[in-house]
């Protein structure tokens, strides 16, 4: 390079730096002003069809597996604004953990879209009866099946009972889960680790293996994963492991079952207001549940359930398989 060329570049560098400072000045002025207005940003995001609860929520803690009837405020699952349009007309669906939370909201929207529902649950009889009534109020049939998904025999029996009641099985939603945090890695016992894997991984394996031989082309499996399976969680080591496993299982099973016309996808929620977290976290943490998301509040079950309708309906997602759909209230790198 000649001196002449150097000078030309040097002059332009000075100009570019001055241009950068020109762009920066108004942003600096705005930042200084925003410091005073910080309070305005405190509210949670309300972009839904109705208004949803925001932290602080009433402090509360529950014994496992948690009862929706005892939650305050009651989770919002019935989506009164949602008009059914036959997207699952004549289908039969089996949903585990359908007594409460996400599973209940999925049961209600599936029924509104024309499906009969087999409701599986652990021991929350009151919640299961409430879901059954809600499905029947949509004009569809419901059966309730109580048992432990970690037992292969129960999953076999649940599939058989669904076939006996409805004559078919079109959609399976493996959704039941066990989640319990540990303060320290050393607190994670063999028994705890086993319980989480048996429920969350073996449960999904047993159920899908029992159901698939009876499913026809056009059927769908929609599994519940989690943000913890994508991002990890320092207090939910075993649970996050199972959720990441579910994501990989769905991706692999989706490819495996594609030739049979059975699609497999995952909904991976962030914080959702259901019995699961009050039956895990202490009362104070429950009160702030969801506050650290971009939306600054937990989702309500009716904000998550539409994704299951989308992934279950051959009218809506016939070319989608092996996908993981996060619904986590936005992304932030800090
Ligand atoms: P929930 O407490 O309403 O549902 C969990 C269900 O699992 C219960 O209905 C219970 O009956 C069932 N269950 C637990 N152990 C069982 C067993 N051994 N056999 C049979 N059933 C059993 O809570 P939810 O939040 O609606 O959970 C549904 C799914 O959503 C779970 O897979 C959970 O991991 C996932 N999820 C929840 C959140 C959240 O913040 N609530 C976030 C991400 C993912």
Which terms would index this structure?
334 residues; alpha/beta; Rossmann fold; 7-stranded parallel β-sheet; 10 helices; globular; binds nicotinamide-adenine-dinucleotide
How are the elements arranged and paired?
Blueprint: H1 3-36, E1 92-96, H2 101-112, E2 116-121, H3 125-137, E3 142-146, H4 152-166, E4 171-173, H5 190-211, E5 220-224, H6 228-231, H7 237-257, E6 263-269, H8 283-287, H9 301-312, H10 314-317, E7 324-327
Helix pairs in contact: 2-3, 2-9, 4-5, 5-7
The chain binds nicotinamide-adenine-dinucleotide (NAD).
CATH-derived architecture: 3-Layer(aba) Sandwich
Give me the side-by-side strand order of the main sheet: 3-2-1-4-5-6-7
Give the total of domains: 1
Report the top-level CATH class.
Alpha Beta
Structural classification = alpha/beta
Rg is 24 Å
Low-confidence stretches: none
How many strand segments? 7
Give a list of the ligands. Answer: nicotinamide-adenine-dinucleotide
Q: Care to describe what's here?
A:
- This protein has 334 residues and is of the alpha/beta class.
- It has one domain (68-327): Rossmann fold (3-Layer(aba) Sandwich).
- 43% of the residues lie in helices and 10% in strands.
- It has a 7-stranded parallel sheet with strand order 3-2-1-4-5-6-7, with helices on both faces.
- 43% of the residues are buried.
- The chain binds nicotinamide-adenine-dinucleotide.
- Nicotinamide-adenine-dinucleotide binds next to α2.
């Amino acid at each position: 390079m000649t001196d002449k060329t150097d000078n030309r570049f040097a002059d332009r560098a000075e100009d570019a730096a001055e241009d950068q400072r020109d762009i920066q000045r108004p942003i600096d002025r705005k930042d200084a002003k925003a410091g005073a207005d910080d309070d305005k940003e405190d509210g949670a995001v309300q972009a839904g069809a109705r208004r949803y609860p925001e932290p602080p929520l009433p402090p509360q803690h529950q014994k496992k597996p948690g009862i929706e009837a005892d939650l305050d405020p009651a989770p919002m699952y019935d989506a009164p604004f949602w008009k059914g349009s036959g997207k699952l007309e004549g289908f039969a669906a089996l949903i585990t953990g359908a007594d409460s939370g996400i599973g209940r909201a999925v049961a209600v929207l599936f029924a509104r879209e024309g499906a009969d529902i087999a409701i599986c649950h652990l021991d929350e009889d009151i919640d299961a009866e409430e879901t059954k009534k809600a499905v029947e109020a949509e004009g569809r049939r419901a059966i309730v099946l109580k048992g432990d998904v970690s037992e292969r025999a129960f999953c076999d029996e649940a599939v058989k009972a669904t076939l006996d009641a409805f004559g078919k099985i079109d959609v399976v939603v493996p959704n039941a889960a066990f989640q319990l945090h540990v303060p320290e890695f050393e607190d994670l016992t063999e028994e705890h680790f086993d319980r989480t894997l048996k429920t969350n991984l073996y449960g999904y394996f047993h159920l899908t293996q029992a159901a698939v031989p009876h499913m026809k082309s056009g059927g769908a499996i929609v599994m519940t994963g989690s943000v913890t399976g994508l991002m990890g969680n320092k207090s939910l080591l075993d649970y996050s492991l199972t959720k990441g496993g579910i994501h990989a299982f769905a991706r692999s099973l989706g490819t495996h079952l594609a030739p049979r016309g059975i699609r497999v996808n995952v909904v991976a929620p962030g914080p959702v207001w259901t019995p699961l977290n009050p039956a895990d976290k202490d009362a104070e943490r429950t009160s702030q549940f969801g506050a650290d998301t971009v939306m600054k509040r937990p989702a309500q079950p009716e904000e998550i359930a539409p994704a299951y309708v989308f992934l279950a309906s051959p009218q809506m997602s016939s070319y989608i398989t092996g996908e993981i759909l996060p619904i986590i209230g936005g992304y932030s790198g800090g």
